[in-house]
Amino acid sequence: xxxxxxxxxxxxxxxxxxxxxxxxxxxxxxxxxxxxxxxxxxxxxxxxxxxxxxxxxxxxxxxxxxxxxxxxxxxxxxxxxxxxxxxxxxxxxxxxxxxxxxxxxxxxxxxxxxxxxxxxxxxxxxxxxxxxxxxxxxxxxxxxxxxxxxxxxxxxxxxxxxxxxxxxxxxxxxxxxxxxxxxxxxxxxxxxxxxxxxxxxxxxxxxxxxxxxxxxxxxxxxxxxxxxxxxxxxxxxxxxxxxxxxxxxxxxxxxxxxxxxxxxxxxxxxxxxxxxxxxxxxxxxxxxxxxxxxxxxxxxxxxxxxxxxxxxxxxxxxxxxxxxxxxxxxxx
Length: 332
Ligand SMILES: [Zn+2]
Ligand SMILES: [Zn+2]
Fold this sequence. Notes:
It is built from ten helices and 14 strands. The protein is of the alpha/beta class. It has one domain: Ribonuclease Z/Hydroxyacylglutathione hydrolase-like (Metallo-beta-lactamase, Chain A, 4-Layer Sandwich), CATH 3.60.15. The strands form two sheets. Strands 6-5-4-3-2-1-14 form a seven-stranded mixed sheet. The chain has a seven-stranded mixed sheet with strand order 7-8-9-10-11-12-13, covered by helices on one side. α5 links the parallel β4 and β5. α8 packs across α9. The longest helix has 22 residues. The chain is globular. It starts with a helix and ends with a strand. Bound molecules: zinc ion (2 copies). One zinc ion binds next to loops.
């Protein structure tokens, strides 16, 4: 190495460390409440809406810390969401590399089209990976979509010939599995989505920190089940310990929606009721400031805005409401 370039290297290193000191600044109480430099989870929503807009349907990339090894929770939209995230500078181009290399696995909450369309449509260009879900969901993927009649069978089960690009992994309720090629552990909890139809909540763990993602779900009181209550019982201690970093949960309709037309979905009032059930287990203060990410708003008329207003107006527990946008990174 030439003396001049060595000098430049030393100067550069010094400059970096000096600027790091300058940025860290004095330690004050207000700094202590700032998020840590390395988050427990990075989430990139590829689709956030609960219907109609086929370019923006439920799909969330989740990685440990700042890594680029993503699992994909639901896959209603892939291509349009990756394109948007690239345009926002949140993911590096090209789209094909994100799809093929950065997304390691899929976790599908239930087989409604708005949660799997992106996966099916992009499958010819995708790389080989695992699809994790409860047995009821995998059965529909195999029998109704990757079946040669609807689409080529890219799976390793179902109608022959099987192209075996995707390996189906059946999740058992409550059992934790390690997501292939990531450090993330995932547990599945069955949900009721228009009884008797089943959906899933995924509890994603990175070391001691967790993130809870609900697929579509009705309220326990409406569905006449205790499925959400069982999830709360499992995560209550995590909430009390400050280890649950965020809850992703759906609110599909505004409060005006008649109960008979909920079709296994939540309203702001029903979400509030469910969060109170969690607070009954943890104490109310444990929920104060907890990030609650609102997914799956149905965009008919001005419903998305009405849902937002109703949630903000009725938030007695003081959770931190977050309204995700396609291609905008979230850190927890
Ligand atoms: Zn659904
Ligand atoms: Zn849905």
